[in-house]
Amino acid sequence: xxxxxxxxxxxxxxxxxxxxxxxxxxxxxxxxxxxxxxxxxxxxxxxxxxxxxxxxxxxxxxxxxxxxxxxxxxxxxxxxxxxxxxxxxxxxxxxxxxxxxxxxxxxxxxxxxxxxxxxxxxxxxxxxxxxxxxxxxxxxxxxxxxxxxxxxxxxxxxxxxxxxxxxxxxxxxxxxxxxxxxxxxxxxxxxxxxxxxxxxxxxxxxxxxxxxxxxxxxxxxxxxxxxxxxxxxxxxxxxxxxxxxxxxxxxxxxxxxxxxxxxxxxxxxxxxxxxxxxxxxxxxxxxxxxxxxxxxxxxxxxxxxxxxxxxxxxxxxxxxxxxxxxxxxxxx
Length: 332
What we know:
The protein has helices at residues 2-16, 21-43, 162-169, 237-256, 274-284; strands spanning 47-51, 57-58, 63-71, 77-87, 93-103, 108-115, 121-132, 141-154, 177-181, 187-192, 202-209, 212-220, 225-230, 260-265, 271-273, 303-309, 314-315, 320-322.
């Protein structure tokens, strides 16, 4: 505001002195830029940015990291650029950026930093920086915040042909059924888990004869339970990564069908229950595989076993999936 008053005063004096009107207009334009720049810089001192909940991250898929920004000052901050610094385990740095532009006084907005992780693994979101570069980066102000957020990037998924997915889902591994006895102990029927059943589904059956209730029974139907065993021994780093992606693909596919899944990484001796724990374990796995050398875990009595390795074999009926097989497509 000071610049505007000064230029108006000088312009009035100049016009009275016979100066050109274009000179006055140009001076007014310069004053507006300087005023905005000098105001925008100090206003960044009241700018606040806070990371929100991290979404699911997958290698090869562009991620949008949410950040809540707030302008606590009573003035405008212009031409705001927001940047996050992400560090991988070897120490390499990557950046996630977004253009915010203008944030009104006392304003609050949710913005997203775009980041495209190429590889699975554990990353650290270490810093967050906001910069007002108005005008042209000459009078801007930069503020930084320390951030310590662990980012777990899950393995990429592979594209599998639909016919193989159907074969993989119907191979019968881990299929269970429940026989329902009547009140007299004689079996009334067998209820088998079907695709689409939830884990909490309860089957109920009543037997009537001439309108008279003879028996009633209830039983919980258990979906198939599958143990996916990952074997990364004796192969190249590229095939090991494909095998890891294949295991993650099968884990997700079978759990989406409503089945119960476990993951066994050969050499760790630990069973990871469900897709979340399994994929996070795969994300943290080194490229050489497990170095512990522990024996494989035992399958449960009603649990089928699918072995995923780096070979070229592919036999869904025998529960053997090879990442080097021609059936396995590229990462999706």
